[in-house]
Design a protein that fits this description.
Elements: E1 2-5, E2 8-12, H1 18-26, E3 34-36, H2 48-56, H3 75-88, E4 93-96, H4 104-117, E5 120-125, E6 141-143, H5 146-154, H6 207-211, H7 224-231, H8 236-248, E7 269-271, E8 282-284, H9 290-302, H10 313-316, H11 321-329
Parallel strand pairs: 2-5, 3-4, 4-5
Antiparallel strand pairs: 1-2, 1-6, 7-8
Helix pairs in contact: 1-5, 2-3, 3-4, 3-9, 8-9
Length: about 350
């Protein structure tokens, strides 16, 4: 029997039939937007279920007591990362076996994650339904039978099974006006913003406007092993920032000024900035890096920052120690970032 309300489905398997577990494991197809999250047994870590979600999304936390991923031990940070990756990679359906072993708190975390991502959530309750917590008690419809469960897993889900690359929300006023606006067109969008007396300088225009005037510089090629290592990084901002350094070979300081609106809606180009916007080149984003930058942008938007804020600002603080630590682990990419490199 399965009980469904909203986009949450509870499959009640009182006999703990192995069929349902096997079907759930076979349903794990990230490329189609459907993942199966297996909760780690008897894990007492506050963020353990979020880590299980990240693992199902193909992310791997760096091991060890001095891990650069230690900040993902925070419940909020870990679930925020999981939500960002879920949105960026187009996850539309999440299946969780043995959900009856989860605490009420972790069930609440799963429901909150679903609200953030819009994905469908299916929980396998493999014990009598007497222990259903209040959060799962309201039922709108019922289905039953193995065939119906398989049909449920085959449904397309509420969002498409492809990366979600929504365009940036435009800001009002000067933020969307070309820097140094004048009646005559300017030959290069990457020049410094013009200054007017007693008024702040207009911010540099974003990537969409720039792409209409200049051609993006081609991305630097990296080995597939290096791209795979970057793709497996658990934190969206770390993965996005290091991917930019890898395919542009730009200085770390240029990331300090990177905004949401500096990435095109299709994540095919990114604009970097120098001091005073004297040199702001547009770079093409390779296919392997687009989900990583989409994850960084989703993370930024989930924290309710406006498009004009620095997207990578959270990983640039404290001498970017988490960023530098991860860069040091990726020796094959030669992305070691000394403290002095933080200067623009």
């Amino acid at each position: 029997m399965a009980v469904v309300y909203g986009e949450v489905t509870i499959v009640v398997d009182e006999q703990d039939d192995l069929f349902y577990t096997r079907a759930a494991l076979r349903a794990h197809r990230p490329g189609e937007g459907r993942i199966t999250v297996q909760p780690t047994p008897a894990s007492s870590g506050p963020a353990a279920l979020a880590h299980d979600m990240l693992y199902a999304l193909g992310k791997r936390l760096a091991p060890g007591p001095d891990s650069p991923d230690v900040w993902l031990d925070s419940v909020n940070a870990a679930w925020l990362a999981a939500a960002a990756w879920g949105i960026a990679t187009g996850v539309r359906h999440v299946v969780v076996p043995r959900a009856h072993l989860l605490t009420i708190r972790r069930i609440g975390q799963l429901l909150a994650w679903r609200e953030s991502t819009g994905a469908q959530l299916t929980l396998l309750w493999q014990t009598p339904p007497r222990g259903l917590p209040p959060a799962l008690a309201r039922v709108e419809r019922r289905i039953s039978g193995r065939g119906q469960f398989e049909a449920l897993l085959a449904e397309p889900g509420p969002i498409p099974a492809r990366p979600s690359f929504p365009p940036a929300v435009p800001t009002a006023g000067p933020a969307v006006v070309a820097a140094g606006q004048s009646p005559a067109p300017r030959p290069r969008e990457t020049r410094a913003a013009s200054l007017r007396p007693a008024r702040p300088a207009h911010p540099c225009t974003g990537a969409m406007a720039t792409a209409q005037l200049v051609q993006a510089a081609p991305a630097i090629e990296i080995a597939s092993e290096g791209a795979a290592a970057l793709t497996a990084l658990a934190h969206p901002l770390i993965a996005g920032a290091l991917s930019v350094l890898a395919f542009t070979r730009a200085g770390l300081g240029s990331l300090r000024f990177t905004r949401d609106l500096d990435i095109t809606g299709d994540v095919c180009a990114i604009k970097l900035h120098g001091v005073g916007h004297r040199y702001c080149p547009l770079h093409a984003v390779p296919a392997w890096a687009r989900p990583l930058l989409a994850g960084a942008r989703a993370h930024h938007r989930l924290t309710a920052h406006p498009p004009g804020d620095g997207m990578f600002a959270p990983v640039m603080s404290a001498e970017a120690r988490h960023l530098r630590a991860h860069a040091g682990r990726l020796s094959q990419l030669d992305l070691s970032v000394p403290v002095g490199a933080l200067a623009p």
